[in-house]
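Lecture notes, structural biology module. Today: joint structure prediction for complexes of two components.
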Amino acid sequence: MIAEVLATGDEIRSGALVDTNSAYISEKIEEIGIKITRHNCVGDDEDELTTILLELAERADIIIVTGGLGPTLDDLSREAAVRAAGVSLILDNKVLEKIKNFFVSRQKSMPDSNIRQAMFPQGAAILENPIGTAPGFSLRIGRGTFFFLPGVPAEMRKMLNEQVIPKIKQEVKDPYYYKTKTISTFGLGESALEDKLSDFPSLFPDIKLGFRASFPEVQIKLYQKNSNENALVKEQEKAITWIKEKLGHKIVSLTGQPMATVVGDLLIKQKATLAVAESCTGGLIANWLTDRPGSSEYFLLAAVTYANSAKQSVLGVEQKTLEQWGAAHEETAMAMAVGVKKLSGSTYAIATTGIAGPAGGSLEKPAGTVYIAFAGPQGTKARHYFFPFGKRQLNKKIFAAQALNLLRLELLKSI
Amino acid sequence: MIAEVLATGDEIRSGALVDTNSAYISEKIEEIGIKITRHNCVGDDEDELTTILLELAERADIIIVTGGLGPTLDDLSREAAVRAAGVSLILDNKVLEKIKNFFVSRQKSMPDSNIRQAMFPQGAAILENPIGTAPGFSLRIGRGTFFFLPGVPAEMRKMLNEQVIPKIKQEVKDPYYYKTKTISTFGLGESALEDKLSDFPSLFPDIKLGFRASFPEVQIKLYQKNSNENALVKEQEKAITWIKEKLGHKIVSLTGQPMATVVGDLLIKQKATLAVAESCTGGLIANWLTDRPGSSEYFLLAAVTYANSAKQSVLGVEQKTLEQWGAAHEETAMAMAVGVKKLSGSTYAIATTGIAGPAGGSLEKPAGTVYIAFAGPQGTKARHYFFPFGKRQLNKKIFAAQALNLLRLELLKSI
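The predicted structure, tokenised, for the full assembly:
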């Protein structure tokens, strides 16, 4: 079984747009146990498109094509498909009606150019597009079954998952159940995780293990297939228990959630609230926390006190603390955490202060140094870390994640 | 002249990693006037790699290959290249010495596996890697000149720009000068920009125009080539003057800088300082502002007052303002801006309050509504906007950019 993807469009071919569709499709197809052999991309050129469709028709069994189904003249996937298949384009009146209704519901009249979106190669099976005007279609050319999908990621993803994947499973008469599990971790790199889990392949030969860096977190992925759904679930439970033993609190979430979401869940569970005092992370912790819908339930305040004067006037950090220890120090971090906790009346507080770089470092405290403090009902503590990434934005990210991780570990203690 | 790119590696083939290298390479190659015809990707499989190299050797003149040059057994680009070219691998002692020194300088000894990185196909020209252990090489196979580069983006980019692009220009005996210009804009979508600039192609037929969305900003790209460097520069100046007339203050930066950097430059020029009060943007404005190195020169404080109690205790927003107008209102936004300005002693302040969604909206103030205030030496003003994006993270971004844009326009007035 040879499967390939083909992305079309001049924006992707010329590099104006990064192709994220091919990665998404490959991952979803591999999840049902079919290996993607190649990715291909050509631009909006009917000859080029027809040529590559004919090549694919000779060498692949399943081909997912994205893009070129819009109403404009540079949308050429339909035309290339009929040329490659040696058939004609036929108007589908039902689809035309739907497209017209789509415009009526938006109180507009359909431009003539959209008629093209209701035309399909003879013999094609229509793939409905529930969230856009461009329907897709599947078509047999040579040895290949082609699935033509729109290039808009949201439309493509919905149609792939709801229509294409089930059709492929039918096509290959696939007797297997599939399950993918994503586990988020923090604190170990990909190779360190691989080392810790090196016995996994021999203990769980039926589960394929993958690692994906999503800096500064790393996701572990488990890919499984089994003809017995029950056995699959049991095997996964055993594997997760084993991974939990090996990694402990390095595991952030067994459902692949990012750190800030997990921290939010823990705060809600404890009916606790949080305030943040940020210096070198510059608002990134607050930004991550508030990306979670419903974060207003627990997140009260972040004071991004970049200037020393703001550390004093807003957080009440004393002049003598700053003079004695400097802005980047455990004592200052603790004073910031205590200050923002008092100011907001929150249950917990975290604070960051350090040197994100590139400037501002010294031999003793080089760029990459961060001081993180935690304040809670039981008291206050601070830690310092050095990270060798050497880039301002990477430093901000690792500092912010480290601070949220300190909070997460404290919240886990108080469960 | 047919040019193609080939990305190799199982992470990309299987979708675990999005391929950003191919877009980068295509853009750089198109900037010197050579059209990229296709992208290709195969995994770490010697047979697959050899097959596609032979296909490329038949149909393309220039091929950029990324990945597969590392020291491990799944790095197979060298082996596939010698098979496709029908030559042998030869050890280069100079390169071996350099790799050994690389490890010595890190006080480690070189693992045996790294010897492979000093082996090159007979007849290859070595491409030095100034920032990693994997050198690349160029090699003629069939009609094609192949450039093999590492997959690590930073290494690939440096080697492409410093070694490969000059070689290609030599190879094609290219008599042209090339220039790319990036202009950042805010406030108009891609198609609205295209409309405004619709006369451009007839007025400046020698300049190719491109648009790239970098939400919520849109970049305009000018691609030029000319055998006369002077004429090229003059033509670009004329084009930019014309674009400035058409777009006015929708232009954020003539050098492609993002909004937060431009705002920082304006503040430094005016020796002014800034404080921010954020509610619905949740720290994103502060995070963008502090991504700019040296932002501590002008950025004093952001108060991310998510809770109403924090708006009162930190910013001094009065209870009766919140009761009379609600948290999402121009009056509240102005009180926040005035409060944070006073608290920090800054020259300017901006404030945001609104509904990022998905919850918290009403018929009157649906999710996507934002109130933005500005406070400066001349006084205070506020505006409100509604954006129909319907997604929390997109709303946060467009709210934050709109607030920074209001500040930018005020700063431009006071120049």
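Point to remember: The domain at 177-253 of chain B is CATH 3.30.70.2860 (Alpha-Beta Plaits).
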